[in-house]
Design a protein that fits this description.
The protein is mainly alpha-helical. 61% of the residues lie in helices and 0% in strands.
Length: 80
């Protein structure tokens, strides 16, 4: 698996779980905040979501697998 697939695997379930946890807050009575375990869970879920976004956007230029196919495009020599 490459980084983009791993990022998507982290991002999609994390988003769904985050929506569920935020939706649970509307069903609590007024004046009651999220319970502490749900608060910790939402912090961990947010961290996983950020890691997923970073991995989706990660690009390794000239990685070891691509170096063997790398060809120089400018082979001209210039004289002064």
């Amino acid at each position: 698996m490459n980084y983009r697939n791993i990022g998507l695997v982290l991002l999609i379930p994390s988003t769904i779980i985050g929506i569920i946890v935020l939706g649970m807050n509307t069903y609590l009575p007024n004046g009651i905040e999220l319970p502490i375990p749900l608060l910790y869970f939402s912090i961990i879920n947010g961290t996983i979501w950020i890691i997923g976004i970073v991995l989706v956007n990660y690009k390794a230029k000239h990685s070891s697998g691509k170096k063997k196919n790398f060809k120089r495009t400018n082979t001209k020599t210039y004289d002064n």
